[in-house]
């Protein structure tokens, strides 16, 4: 599992070098990002919870969204502890809880990616008419599938992360998220390279296929394409991929550089900021709610008409 770094937040900093961020500025950036993620993610989770009441409980897509809401809520519960640390610059909750909070950020990122892939695959199966609908036969099957995912994530991965991670370095009790020493291990480096390559390849495949589908839909639809529900469905699918590109891909691409230049201590700040951007993915539920509203679609069509007249 990739490590997490905030090494320069508590360190005394001399004259900043060109191209680097002062530790105080980095701290304000982190506080801002996590605050936005916490507020927007909480509003989105609440709004989506009301919509889930009206959805088909046997639908696999509904089950995925339910799990996504739970996943976002779990990571949002850890955000106040991060904010307290970045504001006070002191960790008072112990090393074990620090590892758990750190692990939760990574579990959230990769489970979110998994849920996105499942949702996109289901949408594509329906689009290419390989399936009319993808549903569980019984509600118990949906519960069992969800329980399996959470058992693996919280009962196996989280304890393993907490027990094994942070073993190769000497970490103080008053600091947190400073596990960069783990990256000196060849096995950890190899795991990071595999994860980075996998995420990058998956992103390229998802984006390429979705663009192909959108172009196919646009070519097939007559008249104004923005008035067709089929296009809006594909735009919503593109939003999943956009979250991956905006929130997850920068962290992995920068990490590739970071692993190779670990001696440059100022890079720890950039790594930590890139990791915090992954928390912005909690805003996806709010964006889905807004994009699915008639008001939003009407405004898009009005904007398109105004641009066409200019």
From TrEMBL:
It is a multi-pass membrane protein. GO terms for cellular component: plasma membrane. It is found in: Cell membrane. Signal peptide: none annotated. Residues 41-257 form the G-protein coupled receptors family 1 profile domain. One of its GO terms (molecular function) is oxysterol binding. Coiled coil: none annotated. The chain crosses the membrane at residues 28-53, 65-87, 107-128, 140-161, 193-218, 238-257, 269-296. Keywords: Cell membrane, G-protein coupled receptor, Glycoprotein, Membrane, Receptor, Transducer, Transmembrane, Transmembrane helix. PROSITE patterns: G_PROTEIN_RECEP_F1_2. InterPro entries: GP183-like, GPCR_Rhodpsn, GPCR_Rhodpsn_7TM. PANTHER family: G-PROTEIN COUPLED RECEPTOR, G-PROTEIN COUPLED RECEPTOR 141-RELATED. Orphan receptor. This is Probable G-protein coupled receptor 141. It comes from Chelonia mydas. The lineage of its organism: Eukaryota, Metazoa, Chordata, Craniata, Vertebrata.
């Amino acid at each position: 599992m990739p490590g997490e770094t905030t090494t320069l937040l508590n360190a005394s900093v001399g004259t900043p070098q060109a191209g680097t961020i002062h530790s105080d500025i980095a701290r304000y950036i982190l506080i801002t990002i996590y605050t936005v993620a916490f507020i927007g993610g909480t509003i989105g989770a609440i709004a989506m919870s009301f919509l889930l009441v009206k959805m088909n409980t046997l639908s696999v897509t509904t089950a995925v969204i339910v799990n996504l809401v739970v996943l976002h809520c779990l990571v949002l519960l850890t955000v106040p502890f991060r904010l307290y640390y970045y504001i006070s610059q002191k960790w008072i909750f112990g090393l074990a809880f620090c590892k758990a909070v750190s692990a939760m950020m990574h579990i959230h990122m990769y489970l979110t990616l998994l849920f996105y892939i499942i949702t996109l695959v289901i949408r594509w199966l329906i689009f290419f008419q390989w399936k009319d609908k993808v549903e569980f036969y019984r509600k118990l099957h949906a519960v069992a599938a969800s329980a399996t995912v959470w058992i693996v994530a919280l009962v196996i991965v989280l304890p393993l992360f907490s027990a094994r991670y942070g073993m190769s370095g000497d970490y103080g009790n008053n600091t947190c998220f400073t596990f960069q020493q783990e990256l000196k291990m060849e096995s950890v480096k190899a795991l990071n390279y595999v994860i980075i390559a996998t995420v990058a390849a998956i992103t390229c495949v998802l984006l390429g296929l979705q663009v192909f589908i959108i172009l196919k839909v646009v070519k097939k639809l007559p008249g104004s394409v923005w008035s067709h529900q089929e296009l809006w469905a594909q735009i919503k699918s593109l939003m999943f991929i956009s979250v991956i590109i905006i929130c997850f891909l920068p962290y992995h691409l920068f990490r590739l550089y970071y692993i190779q230049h670990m001696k440059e201590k100022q890079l720890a700040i950039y790594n930590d900021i890139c990791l915090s951007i992954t928390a912005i993915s909690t805003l996806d539920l709010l964006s889905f709610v807004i994009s699915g509203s008639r008001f939003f679609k009407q405004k898009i069509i009005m904007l398109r008409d105004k641009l066409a007249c200019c």
